[in-house]
Amino acid sequence: MNEIKFLVQGSAPEPYLVIFRKSGNNLIALCNCLAGQNGMYCKHRFRILAGSDEGIVSDNVQDVEIVKAWLKDSDVEKALNELHEAEADLTKLKKKVSALKKKVAKTLIE
User: Fold this and answer.
1) Could you tell me if 106 and 56 are in contact, meaning their C-beta atoms sit under 8 angstroms apart?
2) Measuring CA to CA, which residue among 6, 100, 1, 102 is closest to residue 54?
3) Which of 36, 52, 53, 101 is the most exposed, having the fewest neighbouring CB atoms within 10 Å of its CB?
């Protein structure tokens, strides 16, 4: 198993500890921020997965590229791809709903 730890400055006075573990195609990312502790979306983990070093205060910023490479062919990559597809679908549906609302409104005044 491979492990990389980062200290990431967030909204709390003390930096958050973000840990990535890679074993086979399984990738685990933990963060001790409130969202991370509650199993919710945590921007600290997702930023690093996306290749961003924003907020990292530990001296291993270069390890972001390693973690980003770990994402390839992992279980997390598959889940993220599904999320991105769903977000794209949602954007299309929002546009469609907006257009239909305009159509209904126009129909009401004609």
Assistant:
1) no
2) 6
3) 101
